[in-house]
Structures are given as structure tokens and as C-alpha cells.
């Protein structure tokens, strides 16, 4: 019955593995306390939801993350009294940002997160810290000037995303190709099976600025929507939201906002925008 | 090669040898031509560009993306396998129970879990359940529980077939000795069935391991998510990343498949088992 | 449940499941043909054919379907420029069918091969003794008997195929899983009814299919 013993050993090993994995997981979740301001000053720790696959904005580059969203998140954490070492980055995708905030899996979300009324029903927004706009990424030699010029052509965007929905409703003559990540759209653009990729201009700029795409693509530069990027937090955390807006106001004047841009998207050569603090949300 | 298939044809005579040689040459050329075509087309689209492949020579790529992803895959698969085994045993025995109050609900659960695509199940666990419980549902457990319910229900059906394939004389002998129904099940039927189920269980592990790939829809950091989506966002090499990741899956699963075959041959060789069941992996139960 | 009284929601659900059924139908037929051919190759006297069959099975059976479908789109279409239809959705559909068929055929092949093993060796020996060639032995003697033994496993494969069809959503087809994601995204407060409706349709489609194939399998089984 040697075989029985081998199987028993294997089962024991698997159980140990499982136990370890379970331990690794158990301190997730349950993060958000009453308010973000209290939590930050008490624990000196924050869990921040960011994108992992958006170059220039939120990109996991190995053990760490980098991009404009990451820099903004660091500014806010610092304003709340949390050092970069106290930040736990958590990868979010577009679809799970509201649930993550509502369920307390993250304290804040800084992940190309457009402020809109539908989302305001579920979460609170501070910011905006940047106003993006839907734009097109095309081959460097392309003569396309805007979505009107793409009638009957194929344009790629992320499945169920806001840009994809806008194409479906406002530009019905465009053939929309949908994938679950923009990396796949970029691959399709490289392979010339789509004419353009559409989403917010700074996301596109992030891709265009990547080393391997240098000189291959260009952002058309004519936005056809307005996407104010906000910082998501729990709906009832009005105090936290107001505090974050305060931090953003300071950042706009003391040069840290510009520094955040310059170390990330600024590398593409685009000048830093000015943060219009008069447009900040009322944290309703 | 099984005994039967070598009996399907005679030792080739002179004409058959010529024909076989022609077929060999023909198909070899065809395969080579196909591979050449793929190579040339990839070359034309610049997919062999060193910049796209070089990241895989850097240790950081492996340490920061692929190995953590692999760990995510293997840990989820390991926990899910243990749970799926428990689920399978409990529900197969439950479904064979003489009490309708036990067998009917067990049957309903198994049939439901077998019919709902894993993609929908994981999605629901991750986004739907928190609305009922009001508590977050970690991605790891959404993947593990989804895999458990699905693979557990498949195993439950396989176990049930295994238990039923134990010759009736065995349980009759048990009853004749005065054992109760539960004793016959635990002491006689399950041990004999379990022995013949070993290869099936290992094969199901292959299915389970592949299915963890669906975790990427809820951003669970497994091999596909880390290796293809996140890694390629850094280097713009989604195609190359997918090829490397596929190779890793194939390597791991080939070892597991070989292990299943080895177990199968081993259990057969001892000549003690009379129970033989068609391996479950052949039922194409994979959902990913 | 009122969201399911909206016509556009009903339309999304219907379109989603229509794609699933079409994918299953087309891939089911292709996979069966391909699977039988592969099984024939794997038991044939020509080593190269056996090699191709084995490689095929080992490759596709051990790769996640998500990746297989990915390669169909980004490998065959984007890189190799294999375009199967000028219509956007139909092109994705047929690329998806290719992926599903190639993947499922590996399982069909293995099911048939184990079916062949249930045919007693005497049958093949008798066929050879009366002078049948390999092709004739397989076609006239072995496969018809093996076929009866593989009805139930093929039923399981069909069920798996139907569920697997949801994976084609990852290359942009608006099938049921994508429709469900979209609905959950838009109506976060009624997640549970949405899931139950989609799961319910799958159960309604697949549980009877399972019973049908089991019944057929039992009826056709060769008693030995």
C-alpha cells in the first residue's frame, strides 16, 4: 500500500499549501474604518486601488507601481499622514472599483476613475485632479482627424467601458471592436486590424509614450468628451472627501502636482496641466 | 499504445510500407510548410523583434510577474482541489443515499453546479455575494469556491459512477456480515472506488489548473493576468507573453497528465481492481 | 425582476444566448469531425500521423481555452491575417468556432480512443483475418461499436462546449457572459436576479441535454 502513503503525503502537502495561501489572504478586506482621515492617522496605513495595466497612469512594473495616478495617490496619502511605505497598492479593474469601495476592500481608488452621476449614487468623489477627454490613437501616418472620419471603420475599446458605450450611441456608423484590456487593442492596432483605439486621451498618451511604440502611434488630439478623474471613497465619508480636496488645493500651488506629472506622463514631452481647484466636488 | 490499437493493423507488407512512407513524407512536408508560413508571417509583422522577447531573459520579469502569477495559479488550484475532493465525496455519497431528503437536494446542487459556466459563477461570487452578505469577497476565494463547486460536482458524478461500478457482491457480502448501510459505504464501497478514481482525480486537477485562468476576469493575480495582461502592458508584447504563458501551462499540465497515466497503469498492473471507469479528463469538462 | 421586462435587456439576453447556441452548434459539428480524424490518426500505422495527433491532443488539452481563443484572434487574424468574414461579429464568431473546435476536438479524440479500447481485441483480429485494411477495420468494425460506448462522454463534451462558448466573449463577441457583465455593470442593485436568470437558462438548456445523453448512452450500450 505504498501508493496510499504517497497520496496521503500529497494530500497533506496540498493542505499545508492551502493553509498558507489562506493565511496570506486573511488580512485582506475589512480595511476601511469609520472615516479615511481617522484611519490614516491611527494606522498610518492605506489600501489604495489603482490600475495595474495602464502605462503612464497606473502600471505594475514589477514589485512596485508607477504612473500619474500613483503619484497623485502618494500626494494624498502624505497629506493624510501616511508615508509611501504605508500604502498597500491593490489592483482594480474598471468593473470592480465601486464594489471595492463599497465593500471596504480599498480605502481609496485612484484609477482613471471618471466622476459621473451614476457612480455618485454608490461612492463619493474627491477631485477632479485631471480632466481627460475621449480621443483616438492612430498610426503615426494616419490622416484621421476625429471620430467622424471613421465611418464604417473598425475602432477598438475596452468591453463595456464608457468610451465604448459612447461610440455605440453617438457614432453608430463606427464598427466597434471590444476587448477586455487596452493592451489587446494596441496589439490589434499594431497588426492593423483596427483603424484606431479610443479611450481617454491620457491613457492613449501613456501607451504612445512607451518605448516600444515610439514613433509608431499618435494621439489625434481632438477630444470629444469630458472625463473628470476623481478619487473614489466611501459614500458617507464627507470629511475624508473634503480633506482630500484640501490636499489637492495645496498640491496645485506648492508644485507637487506638477512634479507628479513631470515624473510620469510628463516624460512624453507633454507640459503639465494646471489643476483648476475651482472645479473640485462639493463632496455631496 | 493500448493493446487494441496495435491490433488494428497487420505488420505492413511491401506496398503498405511504401504507402506509409509516402504518407510520412507528405504529412511531414505539410507540417513543415505550415510552420514555415507561421514563422514568415510572424516575421513580417515584426513579432520576432528581440525587444519583444528580451523581457523574458530578465530575472525581474520572472520574479515580479510570472512566478507570483504561477503561485497565484497553483495556490488557488491546490486549495480548490482539496475542497473539490471533499465536495465530490460528500455529494456523491449524498446522491446515492436511500433517503430522498438527502439524495434529491444533493442531486439538484450537483446538476446546477455542472450546468452553470464557471465564468458566470466566479463573476457572481465576486460581485453578487457581497450584496447579500454585506462583506467583501476576496478574489482568491471567489476563484477557489467557483472552482470547487464546478469541479466538485464533476468529481461527484465520477465518484458516483465509481461507487456504482463496485461489483454488487461486495456490498451484499458486507450486508451479509451485518454491516449497516453507512458502514458498507465507508468501509467497502468508497475505499474500492477511491482506488480506481486516482487517475481521474489527477486528470481533474489538470482541468482545475487550467480553469484558474478565468480568475483574470476579477483581477485575481494568476498566471494569465500577471503574465499576459500586466506584463504586456509594460513591454507591449502581448503575443509573446501569451506564448510563454501557454508553454508554462502545457509543461505543468503535461507532467500532471503523465502522472495520471502512470497512476492508471500502476493501479491496473496490481490486478486487484475490478472497477474501471472512463477517465473524466476525457469528458472535456474544462471550462477554460 | 422588472429589468427583464425592458425590451433592450431582453434583446441583449436573447442575442447572448443565440451566439452561445450558434457557437455550440458550429463547433460541435467541426469538433466531432476533427476529433474522429484525430482519433483515427492516433491509432494509425503511420508514426508521423500518430505524432501529429498526439501533439494536437497534448497541446490543446493542456492550454487554457482562454489562451486558445486568444491565439485564434491575435495569432490567426491579427498576425497571420486570416480573415473569415468581412463582417465584424461573424469574423469573431468563426475565429471563436475555430478555437473551440480545435480545443474540443482534443477531448473528442480522447473519448473516442477510450471508446476504441472498450471494443474487444477479437473484433479487430477477426476483421484483419477476413482481410480488411486498417481503414476498413476502423470504419466498418471498430468505430460503429466504439461509437455506442462514447455517446455519454460525448454528451458531457457537448455540455462543456456549451459552457465554454462563453469564453469567446473575451475576444469581443456579445455572448451571454458579456451580456451578464454589462447588465450587472448597469444594474448593480439587482445582481442576484440577473445571475439567476442567466444561470437558469444554462440549467434549462444543459440539464435535459445531460439526461438525454445518459439515456441514449444506456440504451445504446453494448452489453458484454
UniProtKB/TrEMBL annotation, chain A:
Keywords, ordered alphabetically: Signal, Transport
GO cellular component, one term: extracellular region
Domain Solute-binding protein family 3/N-terminal: 45-268
Signal peptide per UniProt: 1-21
Biological processes annotated in GO: amino acid transport
Keyword Lyase set for record: no
Database matches in Pfam families: SBP_bac_3
Top-rank taxon: Bacteria
Family: Belongs to the bacterial solute-binding protein 3 family.
Name of the protein this chain belongs to: Glutamate-binding protein
TrEMBL record, chain B:
Pfam families: BPD_transp_1 (PF00528)
Membrane-topology descriptor: Multi-pass membrane protein
Cellular component terms (Gene Ontology): ATP-binding cassette (ABC) transporter complex
Domain of life, source organism: Bacteria
Annotated keywords: Cell membrane, Membrane, Transmembrane, Transmembrane helix, Transport
CDD domains for this protein: TM_PBP2 (cd06261)
Record family assignment: Belongs to the binding-protein-dependent transport system permease family.
Protein name: Glutamate ABC transporter permease
Protein species of origin: Pilimelia terevasa
Automatic annotation (TrEMBL), chain C:
Main location: membrane
Family according to the record: Belongs to the binding-protein-dependent transport system permease family. HisMQ subfamily.
Keyword terms, alphabetized: Amino-acid transport, Cell membrane, Membrane, Transmembrane, Transmembrane helix, Transport
Topology in membrane: Multi-pass membrane protein
Gene Ontology cellular component terms for the protein in this record: ATP-binding cassette (ABC) transporter complex
Pfam families on file: BPD_transp_1
Chloroplast recorded as keyword: no
Annotated GO MF terms: transmembrane transporter activity
GO BP terms: amino acid transport
Keyword Membrane attached: yes
Localization annotation: Cell membrane
Residues spanning the membrane: 20-41, 62-80, 92-112, 190-213
Source taxon at top rank: Bacteria
PROSITE patterns: ABC_TM1
Domain ABC transmembrane type-1 span(s) in chain numbering: 17-213
Signal peptide: none
Protein name per its UniProtKB record: Glutamate ABC transporter permease
